[in-house]
């Protein structure tokens, strides 16, 4: 392996790490913050989730819990999409450079 090849591999690896951080850090925040808010509300205002919506028997807690689960599924699909679109080409490029 030549020095130029090693430098090229290092640049691709650095690009891969940078792209990975750009994807993962925002998604971690989008995942953790809603969970902490949910737990915070349960801890400091537990009656909030027990309130019924309208005249029905559906509570705010059930709706927000369902939306939280849906939110996490969307984050997972977004992660898979971004990894396939942004990171996988860099991984392939890195493998070819070796």
Characterise the protein shown here.
It is a single chain. The chain is an all-alpha fold and 98 residues long. 82% of the residues lie in helices and 0% in strands. The protein has 2 helices and no strands. The radius of gyration is 21 Å and the shape is elongated. The termini are close together.
Runs in which pLDDT lies below 50 for 5 or more consecutive residues are none
Number of domains: 1
Q: State the share of residues found in helices, binned by percent.
A: over 70%
Categorize the overall geometry: elongated
Number of strands: 0
Quick structural gist:
Helix 1 (3-44) packs antiparallel against helix 2. It is built from 2 helices and no strands.
Descriptors:
mainly alpha, 98 residues
Topology:
Elements: H1 3-44, H2 60-97
Helix pairs in contact: 1-2
């Amino acid at each position: 392996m030549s020095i130029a090849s090693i430098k090229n591999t290092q640049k691709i690896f650095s690009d891969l790490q940078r792209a990975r951080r750009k994807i993962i850090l925002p998604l971690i925040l989008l995942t953790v913050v809603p969970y902490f808010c949910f737990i915070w509300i349960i801890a400091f205002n537990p009656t909030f989730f027990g309130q019924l919506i309208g005249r029905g028997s559906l509570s705010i807690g059930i709706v927000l819990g369902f939306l939280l689960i849906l939110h996490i599924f969307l984050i997972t699909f977004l992660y898979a999409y971004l990894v396939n679109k942004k990171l996988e080409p860099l991984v392939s490029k890195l493998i070819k450079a070796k």
